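Translate sequence into structure tokens.
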Amino acid sequence: MDILLLSNGKIAGNQHVMEFASEAVVEQIKRTGAKNLVLIPYAVIRSSHDDRVALVQETFDALGLDCNVTGLHRAEDPVKAIQEAEGILVSGGNTWVLNKTLHDLGLVGPIRKAVLEQGTPYIGWSAGTNIACPTIRTTNDMPIITGAVLSSLNLVPFQINPHYLEANVEGHMGETRDERIQEFLEINQYEPVVGIPEGTWLHLLNGELSYHTANGKPLKLFSHGKDPVYYTAEQSIQFLMAHSC
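Result follows.
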């Protein structure tokens, strides 16, 4: 398996989606030889799916990679398109809409098989990272649809909070991100949450998990009954793969 899970699509100063993790993206594409990539754009709400495909194609063009990006929304048979894809990309947007659409179209099983059994490379950011968890319960997004589904791809055995922000906003009287995660842990005491801030990503390669950052920001691990722990890119986080929800 070769899985890149980015906290977000862009950071300040970036022109292209995934630019801050471009070295990792280039290495993955060259390592796997993937050329025909399928983008899953279902999370995109405020722009068109075709526009998102074009933006991602621009990224690969700018990186000098000979890759062709097609949108899964254009496929006559989405399951077959996933089965034949040489790489799977999952855009950010609204996690609830994305996850429900994958379930509605019968794509959860085919994506898991492609990534975990066939070794199809996977790159997700924001919502595309949320769905790699066992469930999407630690997304920051609003459930803007009815009939929302919680279980997801379960590519990693722990929960992730992308766009993690450790901050107290002046004048804001609601719960902080840390407090929301602590609420999750009070109810789900055996499910650690990994907070990955903007400009960072997780890489799962053949069962080996590592953390990477373009700006030096650490990962923050939340566990029930314990103080949060920070991990830098130099520290091992492989123990998270031994966790079982």
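Note: The domain at 2-242 is CATH 3.40.50.880 (Rossmann fold).
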